[in-house]
Design goal:
- This protein is an alpha+beta fold.
- It contains eleven helices and nine strands.
- It has helices spanning about 15, 100-105, 125-135, 145-160, 170-180, 185-190, 195-210, 210-230, 235-240, 245-260, 260-270; strands at about 1-10, 20-30, 35-40, 45-55, 60-65, 70-75, 80-85, 90-95, 115-120.
- Strands 1, 2, 3, 4, 5, 6, 7, 8 and 9 form a nine-stranded antiparallel beta sheet that branches.
- Strand 4 (about 45-55) and strand 5 (about 60-65) form a beta hairpin.
- Mean pLDDT is about 85; it is low at about 295-323.
């Protein structure tokens, strides 16, 4: 026996321009029938959260699938899969397409060469699928935008849940982030970790979806923006703070990557922040409440106490792709 639930959508051409368009969602569990052999013209992420089974790609080799795991179905690639006939499995799936799939593939979020990906946890992915399932209610005027946005969330959740990435992040990336503001070349960074430049490039590409140079540059420019916006440090001093001894080179690099010169960025974003920005990330679900003059006080922002979160939505029914 098995239980299955699914919905399919037909987004308009305008919705496809958002980058990702959700074509369908399903949740199902039990002794499900096998899928395929078949070939699709779009992507499908199949998340197995309990149980196990098998997968066969175009080469005919059988791969064991053990939960938690992800099965990637990519356009034009023949596939055949199913749960163990004795135990079944718990599955959810999302069909999607759009021009952003090429970029997500380039960044390593979608892996056509690795159709079966072990996960350390399926909870985040199932939460994203749950948002799509709730948005799939009949007559929802925001259906295409809500579900498209949730596909972006799903790809991020799946990337974070990969079993080959430590929960706290890749140690190589953590070390690079710590040393990002030191004036070191990629080869020097690699040597500090006992790696060749090629090994470092592979590790960073696997962990961050980009080259070491781009990874370091993103950290440096992000910090430079903060210093330009929140301090009155000269541009040359900002450049030195983020690892560039040549302020002219820093300004050219900043302008090319950000699209505006450092001085212009400061004019647009700058604000006086005595003491700098807070390093404590606020809770977006429980922001501090300002006291009004009628309540007395100084207008400080005490942390709200006793906040009760809204009740969780009821669990969604479960589903499966048509064979």
């Amino acid at each position: 026996m098995y239980h299955t639930w699914m919905r399919y959508f037909t987004p308009s051409p305008a919705h496809h321009k958002l980058g990702l368009a959700c074509l369908g969602v399903g949740l199902q569990h039990g002794l499900l029938p096998t899928v395929g052999p078949r070939t699709l013209d779009h992507h499908v992420a199949v998340v197995i959260s309990a149980g196990g089974g098998w997968f066969r790609g175009p080469d005919g080799r059988r791969t064991t699938v053990t939960a938690p795991a992800l099965i990637w179905l990519t356009p034009g690639v023949r596939h055949h899969y199913g749960p163990d006939p004795d135990t079944g499995w718990d599955e959810c799936f999302v069909d999607f397409t759009g021009p952003a799939t090429a970029t997500y593939t380039e960044l390593g979020y979608i892996e056509p060469s690795r159709p079966v990906v072990p996960l350390c946890d399926a909870a985040g992915a199932r939460a994203a699928v749950g948002r799509i399932a709730r948005a799939a209610r009949r007559g929802n005027p925001l259906l295409e935008v809500e579900t498209g946005a949730a596909v972006h969330e799903l790809l991020v959740a799946l990337r974070r849940a990969r079993a080959d990435i430590a929960p706290d992040g890749d140690p190589v990336l953590q070390a690079l982030a710590r040393d990002a503001f030191r004036p070191l070349s990629v080869a020097e960074h690699a040597a500090r970790h006992g790696m060749t430049p090629a090994e470092l490039r592979t590790a960073v590409r696997r962990g961050a979806g980009c080259s070491p140079k781009d990874y370091l540059l993103g950290i440096r420019l992000g910090r430079a923006k903060e210093l330009l916006a929140a301090t009155e440090l000269p541009v040359a001093a900002v450049a030195r703070r983020v690892g560039y001894d040549d302020p002219a080179y820093f300004s050219r690099l900043f302008t090319r990557r950000v699209g505006t010169a450092p001085v212009r960025f400061r004019e647009q974003q700058g604000r006086t922040v005595p003491g700098g920005w807070s390093q404590q990330v606020p809770d977006p679900d429980d922001p501090p409440m300002l006291r009004s003059p009628s309540q007395g006080g100084t207008g400080a922002a005490p942390v709200r106490q006793g906040h009760t979160p809204p009740p969780a939505p009821p669990p969604s029914p479960r589903p499966r792709p048509a064979t």
